[in-house]
Amino acid sequence: MKISPEEVAKVAKLARLDLSPEKIEQYAGQLDDILAYMDKLSELDTASVDPMYTPVDHTTVLREDEVRKDFTRAEILRNAPETDGSFFIVPRIV
Amino acid sequence: MSELTQLTLSEVRAKLADKSLSAREVTEAALARIEATEPKVQALLSVQAEEARTLAAALDAAGPDASKPLWGVPLVIKDVLATKDVPTTCASKILEGFKPVYDATSVAKLKEAGAILLGKANMDEFAMGSTTENSAYFATKNPWDLSRVPGGSSGGSGACVAAGQCYGALGTDTGGSIRLPASFCGIVGIKPTYGRVSRFGMIAYGSSLDQIGPMTRTVEDTARLLQIIAGHDERDSTSVNTPVPDYVAALSQRGDLKGLTIGLPEEYWSKGLSPEVEETCTAAIRAAEGLGAKTVPVRLKLSEYAIATYYIIAVAEASSNLARFDGVRYGHRDKTAESLIEMYVKSRTQGFGEEVQRRIILGTYVLSSGYYDAYYRKAAQVRRLIRQDFETALSQCDLIAGPVCPTTAFRVGEMSADPLQMYLMDIFTISTNLAGLPGMSLPVGLGRKTGMPVGLQLTGRAFDEATMLQVAGLLEKNVSATGMPTL
Predict the structure, then answer these.
(1) Alpha-carbon gap, residue B463 to B193, rounded angstroms
(2) Residue A78 lies in a domain
(3) Measured between beta carbons, which residues in chain B are less than 8 angstroms from residue A91?
(4) Backbone phi and psi for residue B215, each to the nearest 5 degrees, phi listed first
(5) Global confidence as pTM
(6) CATH assignment of the domain containing B445
(7) CA distances (Å), B206 to each of A8, B203, B461, in order?
(8) Does residue B321 surpass a pLDDT of 70?
(9) How does pLDDT run across B53-72, given as a tens digit for each residue?
(10) Mean pLDDT value across residues B8-37
């Protein structure tokens, strides 16, 4: 599967990254090599194999639905680039 | 180097406990060693000297506490683990200045055990890399030869332990990131079974692959650290609720290797190994046989598919895990952006380094509509086959052994031009993370040609770190000594 610069640009947009045209070309070339290497997997017959997304058997871990306060508001806001003391302040969406 | 910093963790621990050494003396010796060697090695991103001194003084005032197994022992933490009020950057610009409001569980456990945390170790950015050259701040050098890499991504942890800056460090391992630097730096490192150690507070790269583990100069030291950090944690739903054996006691329960079978995968011992690695690792296997172990050939036929499988799964998970870095709640934010989306894009583009961006793009691609089944789902199916491959091999032996890496540490810059070539260095370590099994690197001697350390890798059955530690502990005494580098 060959990856075109257009596809790299589209994926970059999804990933919220801004790549220069040179970077897009460079990544397209490198990703091409990497993806070609990954095409090896099609040599294996996996038709009847269950995908393994995690090594552990248990997947649903439950706990009591009780409210716990682990942090204060001040702690949570402490690393915020911009805050009014109550909220994280960000630029408008449009 | 002072004699104090040449002691092992176990030795210094005992001398602190019986008051032949004070916490202050040991901490000052380590800090002096850091000061003397950091200009050359650059293993650490930050040092908390004053905090360490204050804690050492407080510990000495209260006196040794037998209920704290690491009382007064200075350690270092890889900068991917959250340390409360202490900078945690993942060696990225996107987290420059970030100070978590909580400790990772493994860090909290070390503190509770009385350890003194000296500093945060350098790493490849967001654990993506095999040489520590991908750090956004600076590259760490191998203390054995400053023109060579220490391995990665836990290269800072490896270098600081090898250089005698601390008595042990925590690293993390997603595709070999503890075992490779342990091998290149001539120290012991263990990646526990997936689920053995809580990942709470480890800034995630590949959530189904990541594990935290100790890096130390001896096997006993590693057993002592693993003892502290292992165990179920309700804050990590992937951590497993099985009892933690007494790893230190296990070390003395075996006097030889009679009755033990070691599997040697044909795929790990064939052509492609540098002669010095083959020679040094083979000598270690002979030593194991001399101790009574039986060796059998085994097959890991899917080895050639492991890298492709790993890089699909790891980058897919990484692209999801790194989506949280958007400039909203923490980390770098571009303040000139006029809209929210522009802020996301600019903050991330400015904050993430090249390798991180490459993996995010690759991961986003393999998860995107139209490609998900061909790549991610397919890789997950192959992953199950790889685990079955290991289970079959481990039904024929107790442990699998092979070199950690086909070569010893290479020179700085030698690999950084070609990402794919860099990925291929992980060939022997990566399958262990896919299968979720425990893996260990043991230094078995210096290579004849380069004079650099060679690591032997042991892979064990799930939750059987005790057997691996026993075998490594005996081998350690019966292979040519690696020692410490002169800096």
Answers:
(1) 6
(2) no
(3) 337-340, 342-343
(4) -135, 120
(5) 0.97
(6) 3.90.1300.10
(7) 22, 10, 22
(8) yes
(9) 999 999 999 999 999 999 99
(10) 98
